Amino acid sequence: MRPESILVTGGAGYIGSHVVKQLLEKSDANITIIDNLSTGTRGRIDALEAIAGRSGRIDFIEADLADFSMIEGVFKAKKFDALIHFAASIVVPESVEKPLKYYMNNTVNTTNLVSLLNEYGVNRMIFSSTAAVYGEPDEVPVKEGTQTAPINPYGMSKLMSESVIKDAAAANTEFKFAILRYFNVAGADMNGAEALNEIAPRIGQSFPNATHLIKIAAETALGKRDKMYIFGEDFNTHDGTGMRDYIHVDDLADAHLEALDYLQNRDSDIFNVGYGHGYSVKEVIEVMKDVSGVDFRVEIGPRRAGDPAVLVSDNSKICEKMGWKPKFDDLAKICKSALEWEKKIS
Ligand code: UD1
Hints:
Blueprint: E1 5-9, H1 14-26, E2 30-35, H2 42-52, E3 58-62, H3 68-77, E4 82-85, H4 92-97, H5 99-119, E5 124-130, H6 153-171, E6 176-182, E7 184-186, H7 213-221, E8 228-231, E9 243-244, E10 246-248, H8 249-265, E11 269-273, E12 279-280, H9 281-292, E13 298-301, E14 310-311, H10 316-322, H11 331-344
Parallel strand pairs: 1-2, 1-4, 2-3, 4-5, 5-6, 6-11, 7-10, 8-13, 9-14
Antiparallel strand pairs: 9-12
């Protein structure tokens, strides 16, 4: 049986909103969203409320996790069976300039939440972690047991949060967690589409000043930028450009629902969430040109600080243990859904 009452922090954000959407479509759970709308948007809450219809299954609370007494008030007022914790700061270069923002928003807030879970008897937690905990891994594909060695405060703030959760679970055998280490999340709501020309997302990525490759390529295809850059053409890869494991946001969202099921009768664990194979920057750009029909301008620029050449998951653990089956492992669908969403927010 799945949890009936779920707290989702960051549910107005890019990934959180896709998970809430799937919870509405595939479960009967009531969902409480806490989001401070710093990067999350009211528009996504509206879209989720439209999906929920008259069921009244969503309760949105605008609050900052740093406001501990307010958050405790939510736990006092409502009984939850599980927490899915997305709310975090996620921009790698900003984390280097403002490390304390990352340790406060990510590690401190997660610690406060875990203490509330323990105090109020909420015994299931799904945590959004990142491939950034591996830093520049010396083995690819990356396994969950690959050494963790973050190279920026963002990755470190997430790794420290993982430790808090693991230690709390070791001391409280009732409390169980699934830590999901995301690889490169991209794309937008498939909304039931099967063919490329049917894709019409209701929600997607609207992070201002996004640095993500697929979003930048979509913006360039639509003329929101006059050109884009490839950050380095001299990596040790087949075409010299960086390789990443791009995963469609709807498949990532589905992994959270699988994790909720998994925790009903299995032990806490850590899982990579990716497709287990990668694409180069040039390959991504070619596919975006293809699905958009626009031969947009691309220039070669210098490498970006801290970019590893290749970051690809070994996903066999989540596939075998949870039975997770990706449905959108198709770069054209990832790019086309990102592009259609970008058109919608133009
Ligand atoms: C990083 C983080 C990830 C985080 C994400 C967004 C690591 C290991 N990963 O992913 O956890 O969620 O940032 O903050 O730190 N590229 C270009 N031109 C562009 C943009 C990107 O060539 O205009 C290249 C990059 O050099 C890289 C690839 O595209 O090779 C992907 O970059 P990006 O989408 O920014 O994600 P990551 O840096 O891999």
